[in-house]
Amino acid sequence: MNVHNVTADAETFTCNAYLVTGSTTTLVDAGAVSGVADTIAEYTDTLDRVVLTHQHGDHIAELDSVMDAFEPDCYAYSDHPQCTHTIEDGDRIDIGDEVFEVVYTPGHAADHVSFMSETTIFTGDVVVHDDGAFDDGSFGRTDMPGQSRERLIESIRTLLERLPDGGGDNAESSVEHMYSGHGGPFHGDVRTVIERALERAERREPKYPDE
C-alpha cells in the first residue's frame, strides 16, 4: 500500500490529502488546493472512493472537483451532497490494500472519524505528530464554536483503546504508520505519540495563545 500526499506542495492553507493506491485506490480527504484532481491523475487513472475524516473546509473544498474528475464513491459520517455512503463507528472499509475500522472521534469536529488498520491509522485532526504547537504528539484545536476539548480527550482515549497490540511481550501496537490532517507523517511507535497527545490535551492548557 502506497500513500501519497497530493497536497504536499500547497502554498495555500489545506489539510493533507492522501492518495492511497492499491486494490481499492482511495483518497483520504480532498484538501483545499486548486488542481488536486490533476495531481491525483499523475498517480492513477481511476479513483475508487473518497473517504472523509470530517467536513471542515480545508478537508473538502476540492471534493466537487475530485468527484467530477473521477466519479468515485464518497464515504462520510455526516450527510454531504456528494456523499454516496454514510459510515458509522465500527464500520469496516477498504482503503488501498488493507481493511480499516471506522473510529468515531469527535471533539475537533462533530462528524470526525479516524481510520485504523492493523498497520496504519489516518487520524485526521484528532491527533497529529507535529503542527507547530507541539512536536511528537499534538491534537486538534478545540477553541472554535462546536468544538470540545473534553470530547476530544475522550476520542484520543478511544483511539488508544482500539489500537491493536503487537502480540507477544511487546507493548507496542502493530500500528506503525500515522497519517494526520496536518504536519508530517509518523512511522514508528504510534501508541507513544498518541499517548503524548493525550497527556498534553488533558492538561487543559490552551493549545494556542488566544484559545
Helical run tally: 5
Radius of gyration: 16 Å
Low-confidence stretches: none
Question: What is the overall silhouette?
Answer: globular
Helix content: 10-25%
| CATH hierarchy class name | Alpha Beta
DSSP strand tally: 14
Q: Give the strand line-up of the largest sheet.
A: 1-2-3-4-5-6
The CATH topology is given as: Metallo-beta-lactamase, Chain A
Whole-number total of structural domains: 1
H/E topology pattern: EEEHEHHEEEEEEEEHEEH
Report the CATH superfamily: Ribonuclease Z/Hydroxyacylglutathione hydrolase-like
CATH architecture: 4-Layer Sandwich
Instruction: Describe the largest sheet.
Output: 6 strands, mixed
What's the SSE blueprint?
Blueprint: E1 2-5, E2 18-21, E3 26-28, H1 36-41, E4 49-51, H2 57-60, H3 63-70, E5 73-76, E6 85-86, E7 92-95, E8 98-104, E9 113-116, E10 120-124, E11 127-128, E12 138-139, H4 149-162, E13 177-180, E14 186-187, H5 190-202
Parallel strand pairs: 3-4, 4-5, 5-6, 10-13
Antiparallel strand pairs: 1-2, 2-3, 7-8, 8-9, 9-10, 11-12, 13-14
Helix pairs in contact: 4-5
